[in-house]
Every structure is written in C-alpha cells, then in structure tokens.
Amino acid sequence: MSLSKRSQVDPFIVMDVMEAARAAEAEDRQIIHMEVGQPSTPAPLQARQAVVEALQRDPLGYTVALGLPALRQGIARLYMQWYGVDLDPNRVVVTSGSSAGFLLAFTALFDPSARVGIAAPGYPSYRQILKALSLQPVDIPTHAETRHQLRVQDVAVHPLDGLLVASPGNPTGTMLDKTALKALADHAEERSIGFISDEIYHGIEYEKKAVTALEVTDSAYVINSFSKYFSMTGWRVGWLVVPEDHVRSIERLAQNMFICPPHVSQIAALAALESGDEMTKNLAVYAENRRLMLVGLPQAGIAKIAPPDGAFYIYADISEFGVDSRTFAAEVLAEAGVALTPGLDFDPLRGGQTIRMSYAQSTNEIVEGLRRLKAFMQARFL
User: Fold this and answer.
1) Helical residues (DSSP H) of 164-275, grouped into ranges
2) CATH number listed for the domain at residues 5-42+277-376
3) Which CA distances in Å does 154 have to 4, 69, 84, 143, 148?
4) Cβ neighbours of residue 112 under 8 Å, at least 6 residues apart?
5) Taking burial as the number of CB atoms within 10 A of a residue's CB, which of 4, 262, 272, 337 is the most buried?
6) What is the pTM of this model?
7) Tens of pLDDT along 43-58?
8) pLDDT (tens digit per residue) in 187-235
C-alpha cells in the first residue's frame, strides 16, 4: 500500500526543535524556550472555572456544527468592541482551532490545482495544508525594507486564484495598515481572487491596533483563534468569519469534516471573552519582553530585525555570521541552552539565513535567554 502524493508534506521544523529541547531537558539541562509560539500563561481563570461548573452540570455532547450560538454572538460583539465593526453572528463559524478554519476556507474557496499566494516568510502550515488539499501554494517573497508584508505590486505579477495575508504575521510580528490591507483586498476582489485574512494574533499589539479585513471588505474569509491572545493553545478552539452567502456551504463542510468543535472548549472560550482584565496583564508582559528583545538582541550582535508591531516573535537575519540557520539553532541549543527556530520553516528559499525567536515566555526567562545569547555570540562570532 502506497501513500498519496498529497501526504508528502514537509516537516514542521519547530516541532523538531521542540523535541531536541525536550531531549536536552531530559538530561537535566535548563532550556530557555524561544522556539514556539506558546503563551506561558494559562487559559483565563474565568474560562477554567466555567469548565469546572459545566463538567458538574452538563453531559457536554455534540453542539451544532457552526458552534454554540452564545459563543458566535460573543465573538461578533468582540468585533464591535475591538474595531467598531457590526458583525452578524450568523457569519461566525466556531472551529477546532484556526487549523480547522484553514481547512474549511481552502476547501470552500478553491478547486484542486488552484494557486494560492502566501507571503514568504510566512506560517509554514499554510503551505503544507494547501499541498495536502492538492492546491498550489505560491510563495511571494517579502523583504525587510517593506517589513515583510505583501504589497499589491508583489502580488500582481502572479496569476492567483487565492491570496492569504497575515497581520500581525508569523514569523515577523509586522502588520499591514488599513490602506495597505484595503489595497490587497480590492486587488483580490477586482480579479475574483479568494481573499483570506489570518488574524490569529489580533489583540497582541503594541503601539497601534491591528486592522481586521472586515473593516475594508465583506468578501474576505477571516480566521482567528483563542490560542494566542486568550492563551488557549491546547483547547483547540477558533473561529472563521465568512460572507453571508457562504455560510451554508461552510456548515455542510463542517458537519462532515468535524461534526462540531469541542463542546468543553467552546464553554471555556465563551467565558474567556469576559476576561479582558487578565488579558491586559498578559499583554503588558509581552510588551516588556518585546522591549527587552529589541534592546538585548542588538547588544548580542543580532541587529538585522524588523521590529514587530504585534504577536510575540522577532525574525532576524543572521547571514553575516556565515552559518546556516539550522546549524546556528543547533549550536545555540547545544552550547547556550536556548531553543530557536530556523527560518527554513517560514521561507524555504531564503530561510537558511534567518531565525525566529519567540518572547511569549515569562520576563525572567527572556532576561536569561538574552544573557545566554549574548554570551554565545561573543564567544562564537564577535
């Protein structure tokens, strides 16, 4: 029995780094984890309490495929609170994390062999999910001087059936402003290109608020999640906003592909929406960690970075050190006990010269990680 060609996707390198870090920890080494976008904070207290109460009260069986009506309404209210957007809750689809949102969006919008543009560097699973669905990811190079965000002139040279943008982006944390996002959405609409906006890091912004695609168009698919801002990665609950006339098609797909999102996670998510004060405290930690990184990395000799507007990542160019990113990350882990992600995860062509560092951990861990990086760089390169 042979495997399908669709199954032959690339590995998620950060998971390999996590395994190497785990092996080092098994040998009683203390590792500073800057490799993964995993908030160090737990799910909101109200969310955890709501789950305890529900487990004592309810059987927690299937819900409807589109998600609990109260949660869909709560997510719609969030758009008014954050952006002033009056969103019909009927357009909100609760999903099993953002990953299920991508599966639903890609399946609903594109037929096999469709060409979908994505930024390089960008989240690696975009590329692999597209391949697994017999779609063609089209890597569109971005550059530090444009803060690694797509522009219309970058996109226009490619024949596309779809376009996916991410703001704040992973691995860079940079954002599109309203003018740039509207220009991309307009370009897509004029050419009947399916437009998807990944907004999973919204809420984690520093000097300005992120713009949702719903502020500039009603034709986009918008994907978000409770994983990052709400610190609920393992709960696997997110959402998808789709045009009104697409809801029934999405519902049919969701019924057959997933039946419904996890009931217990939806209860937690509904309570998390009322946890703004706790989330504000978490954001203050990220902001301080970002400040420390922007000061400490240049002091360590890692200065070629595009300062992030949001999320909790810094993407750095290490080409001047004459070592590829996988080797660099392996050496930093082995010698300094700091786990980093090679850029090859995010940019198959140019990622050998870049690394991604997460500052989602506690501030004490960031301070220690920077101290170790500085010592490593001084001993190895400076």
Assistant:
1) 178-190, 247-257, 263-272
2) 3.40.640.10
3) 33, 40, 30, 10, 11
4) 133, 134, 135
5) 272
6) 0.96
7) 999 999 999 999 999 8
8) 999 999 999 999 999 999 999 999 999 999 999 999 999 999 999 999 9
